[in-house]
Design a protein that fits this description.
Helix 4 packs across helix 5, helix 8 packs across helix 9 and helix 9 packs antiparallel against helix 10. The chain is globular. The protein contains ten helices and 18 strands. Helix 1 links the parallel strand 6 and strand 7. The chain folds into two domains: 88 residues, Urease, subunit C, domain 1; 284 residues, TIM Barrel (Alpha-Beta Barrel), CATH 3.20.20. The strands form four sheets. Strands 1, 2, 3, 4, 5, 16, 17 and 18 form an eight-stranded mixed beta sheet that branches. It has a six-stranded parallel beta sheet with strand order 6-7-8-9-10-11. By secondary structure, the chain is of the alpha/beta class.
Length: 384
């Protein structure tokens, strides 16, 4: 069966005007401008026709950090955060998710992570995972980072490795270099991105450990994707320098009033400021940190409370970029979808071109909200 989406005001992410999209086998088979002479690209009894009536259509969002199986535990077992529910994921606007372990790699394991990824994939989403953990040596399924990336389809990189954080293993330059090289090589062998996803804490040093790797090895800065770069004003400024030096920077969309009061730069504002600072847009991404704990610690590093991250915060931040900070929609889509897909080595995601996966959002006419979510060519959510 084929599906014809008629009269979509397409942002691919570049604006393409009113278009018809033909979907087959989960991918976009053809795109035609609606004002072209003649009929849409296909019609007949084997084609399901859906008229979108001029509503905006954008690529499904790509989230490079989701804690599928929950996180937390920094305040004891009673502070563990829950797993991501499929229903919540399907309505969020995120159609491609990458799962990671958090602080706890003892009671939560790569096997749990992989099983949950496959559960969400069975529900219609596209899911991947990072092998490894906050702490070193990294926990794996096959016994090595390279083995997991090479032999397990869902594992596309290493993460979330912690630097500049009191909960991490305080990795040396040599350890980070070896792991980055192993991840990079395995990604090449398996035809994957081989990204090293980095949790950045607010301790002194910031992103300097990654610069040290690049200075003393052949590993490029862009092999790393450091997140939480908006968590403090100091780290944000360090992130801008990192972006100018050729590195990627990822802003976290989930937040709390306490984090904002402590100096976190709201993610939409961080995007706008980074673009104003003329950081190359392709180096800027967003992630939700969904279902992770967003903990607070006192001046002596003692746990003071937490809230869970939210997957829906990614779409909300996209709207804040556009409606609150004047970021052009195509640029905002880039940071919420296209750039992460490129960093992760997923060229079929984050864009709506012929041959790309048919992951798309149909936006409401009268508000920043989602009317429909399509994942791999199938409508998985429709607002009542």
């Amino acid at each position: 069966m084929l599906t014809l989406l008629k009269n979509a005001r397409l942002h691919a992410p570049e604006p393409r005007g009113l278009c018809h999209l033909l979907i087959g086998d989960g991918r976009i088979a053809a795109i035609a401008a609606a004002d072209d002479a003649g009929e849409p690209p296909a019609h007949g009894p084997a084609v399901t026709v859906v008229d979108l009536e001029g509503r905006r259509v954008i690529p499904g969002l790509v989230d490079p950090l989701v804690h599928f199986i929950g996180g937390g535990g920094e305040g004891g077992f009673g502070t563990r955060t829950p797993e991501l529910a499929l229903d919540e994921a399907l309505t969020s606007g995120v159609t491609t998710l990458v799962g990671a372990l958090g602080t706890d790699a003892l009671t939560r394991t790569p096997a749990n992570l992989l099983g949950k990824a496959r559960e969400l994939a069975a529900g219609g989403l596209t899911t991947y995972c990072y092998t490894g953990s906050y702490q070193l040596p990294p926990v794996t399924l096959t016994g090595s980072v390279a083995g997991d990336i090479t032999f397990i389809p869902e594992f596309i990189g290493l993460g979330e490795v912690a630097i500049s954080d009191h909960r991490g293993s305080q990795p040396s330059r040599e350890e980070l270099t070896r792991l980055a090289a192993e991840t990079r090589t395995a990604g090449m062998l398996a035809g994957k991105g081989g990204i090293v996803f980095i949790h950045t804490g607010d301790a002194p040093g910031g992103l300097e450990p990654l610069r040290e790797v690049a200075r003393h090895s052949a590993i490029p800065l862009a092999q790393f994707l450091p997140t939480h770069v908006n968590r403090t004003a100091e780290l944000f400024e360090d992130g801008l320098r990192f972006g100018r030096e050729g590195g990627r920077i990822d802003f976290t969309t989930s937040t709390t009033p306490e984090l904002l009061a402590d100096g976190e730069v709201p993610a939409a504002r961080a995007v706008a400021r980074a673009l104003e600072a003329r950081i190359e847009p392709s180096r800027i991404t967003l992630s939700s940190d969904a279902n992770a704990s967003l903990p607070r610690f006192d001046a002596e590093g003692r746990f003071a409370g937490l809230r869970p991250g939210r997957l829906a915060s990614l779409f909300e931040t996209l709207g804040e970029c556009v409606e609150g900070h004047g970021v052009a929609l195509d640029k905002a889509i880039g940071v919420a979808s296209t750039h992460a897909a490129d960093a992760l080595g997923l060229p079929q995601k984050g864009r709506l071109h012929v041959g790309a996966d048919a992951d798309l959002l149909v936006l409401a006419e009268d508000a920043w909200s989602i009317d429909e979510v399509w994942a791999r060519g199938r409508r998985v959510h429709r607002r009542a």
